[in-house]
Design brief:
13% of the residues lie in helices and 33% in strands. Strands 1, 2, 4, 5, 7, 8, 10, 11, 13, 15, 17, 18 and 20 form a 13-stranded parallel β-sheet that branches. The chain contains 1 helix and 20 strands. Belongs to the gamma-class carbonic anhydrase family.
Length: 186
């Protein structure tokens, strides 16, 4: 469902993107080329700041927002998702938040008030809250990263983790093409 927010903003969705019919895209959302938005995802830009304005939620080209993901923002803060990035099933991305390009965010992970640099891998059920994660870092499953976390203790992304991330992104680009072709059959 594509709909306006109370401020009157409508989503802007590239023609080449695929948005599942059960997803909700609301308000000041910009979805770039070849993005896959899976079933029951919610991307909602509807809260305003103290001056009544809001920044957009932007999903970069060739990225995928998988089943049940929620992307929202507090008080009109910006949320950006880079290119070739995968946000896996049931993750929550809550702004203010910036996620770089070629990033993998695992199942049920939560990002809030943070920046995740290019090429990072945040595995399943992890939390990144209130800190900036530089490019190329690996957050292991169930780990919580916050403002007091010693980032030097985190491992760097391995070649195999990076290859896995790239494979997920590539697979979802193929799904965009497949589902776009099917749209004309119903």
């Amino acid at each position: 469902m594509i709909r306006k927010n109370p401020s009157g903003h409508l989503p802007v969705i590239a023609e080449s993107a695929y948005v599942d019919k059960t997803a909700i895209i609301c308000g000041k959302v910009i979805i770039h080329d070849n993005v896959f938005v899976g079933p029951y995802a919610v991307i909602r830009a509807d809260e305003v700041d103290a001056s009544g304005d809001m920044q957009p939620i932007v999903i970069g080209a060739n990225s995928n927002i998988q089943d049940g993901v929620v992307i929202h923002s507090k008080s009109g803060a910006a949320v950006t998702i880079g290119e070739h990035t995968s946000i896996a099933h049931r993750s929550i991305i809550h702004g203010p938040c910036s996620v770089g390009s070629r990033v993998f965010i695992g199942f049920n992970s939560v990002l809030f008030n943070c920046a995740v640099g290019d090429g990072c891998v945040v595995r399943h059920n992890a939390v990144v809250d209130g800190c900036d994660l530089p490019a190329g870092f690996h957050v292991t499953s169930t780990q919580r990263i916050g403002p007091k976390t010693d980032l030097a203790s985190l491992p760097r992304v391995s070649v195999s983790a990076s290859e896995f991330s790239e494979d997920v992104a590539r697979t979802n680009i193929d799904l965009v093409r497949g589902y776009k072709a099917l749209q004309n059959e119903f």
